[in-house]
Amino acid sequence: VQLQASGGGLVQAGGSLRLACVASGLTFSRYAMAWYRQPPGKQRELVASIGSGGGGSRNYADSVKGRFTISRDNAKNTVYLQMNSLKPEDTAVYYCNAERNVRSYWGQGTLVTVSS
Fold first, then answer.
1. Please, what are the averages of pLDDT over each run of 10 residues along the chain (116 residues)?
2. 3-state DSSP call for residue 52?
3. Residue 95 in contact with residue 107, Cβ under 8 Å?
4. Disulfide-capable partner of 82 in 2, 58, 59, 69 (CB 3.0 to 4.6 Å)?
5. Percent helix, strand and coil across the chain, each rounded to 5?
6. Helix, strand or coil for residue 75?
7. pLDDT score recorded for residue 39
8. 3-class secondary-structure state, position 31
9. Which residues does 86 contact at the CB level (< 8 Å), separation at least 6?
């Protein structure tokens, strides 16, 4: 199983980025997907999650509600995180996660840096 995250970079506060995570080696539609982040010197935290199948169930951390949107395209084995109105405190390494029952897989992370 591989999860390849991309789309990170340097952006000014108020800007936008779109992260993508392409999964391979698993039946993508059967997995719940999530984005986590780990700010410098802090623990990893859940940012957003989306249910398996059509992805009708979506959850967000309070800190990103109204600014970030998670979505999935099962035909492309890809989960996205649209990030708008970025703030310096959004600076972190962002990881995608695939989970089904006891199975959990992680991508390698992509760095997002938001300058003030």
1. 97 98 97 97 97 90 98 98 98 98 95 97
2. coil
3. yes
4. 69
5. 10, 55, 35
6. helix
7. 96
8. coil
9. 11, 13, 14, 15, 16, 17, 67, 112, 114
Spatial distance between the Cα atoms of 35 and 42, rounded to a whole number of angstroms: 16
Which letter does DSSP use for residue 18 in this model? E
Residue with tokens 């991508």: 107
How far, CA to CA in Å, does 90 sit from each of 18, 40, 63, 83, 107?
A: 13, 10, 9, 9, 19
- Of the candidates 37, 40, 35, 75, which has an alpha carbon nearest to the alpha carbon of residue 54? 75
